Every structure is written in C-alpha cells, then in structure tokens.
Amino acid sequence: MKDVLKKYLWIFSIAAGILTVSLLLFPNKKNQLEFIEEEIKKVQTHQKILTEKDWEEVDKDTTK
Fold first, then answer.
1. Counted domains in the chain
2. DSSP string of 2-63?
3. Cα R_g (the chain), whole angstroms
4. CB-count burial class (<10 Å; 0-12, 13-18, 19+) for 28
5. Domain, as residue range, for 20
6. pLDDT for 24-57, tens place per residue?
C-alpha cells in the first residue's frame, strides 16, 4: 500500500511540475496579442523608413 502511494505521489508531483512550467513559459492570449501588435508597429516603422529613403533616392536622381 505504501509503495502504491509513493508511486502515485511521484506521478502527481511530476504532473504538477510540468503544469507549473507550462503555465510559466507559455504566454497567455493577452501577451500574444501585445507581441503581435509590437511586431506590426516595427514592420510599419521599417516600411515608413524605407519609403522615405526611396523618395530621397528618387529626389536625388531627378535633381541630377
């Protein structure tokens, strides 16, 4: 009887540990949404910078 309880306690402690680690490591939906919004802002900023550089190059080419 004691061996069976130790076995189940061991399995329960492993399952609890896996659950705890998964809850700490995997972001919730709010964090995922914030991450996606930040990435969208980065892409928009890069796109804006590239567009400005492209126009500057066009201006340089037309003034020559």
1. 1
2. HHHHHHHHHHHHHHHHHHHHHHHHS--HHHHHHHHHHHHHHHHHHHHHHHHHHHHHHHHHHH
3. 27
4. exposed
5. 2-63
6. 777 666 677 888 899 999 998 888 887 777 777 7
Q: Are the C-beta atoms of residues 35 and 27 closer than 8 Å to each other?
A: yes
Contacts of 35 (CB under 8 A, 6+ apart): 27
pLDDT band for 3, please (50, 70, 90 cuts).
confident
Integer distance in angstroms from the first to the last C-alpha of the chain?
92
Going by C-beta distance under 8 Å and a sequence separation of 6 or more, which residues neighbour residue 27?
35
Q: Which amino acid is at 48?
A: K
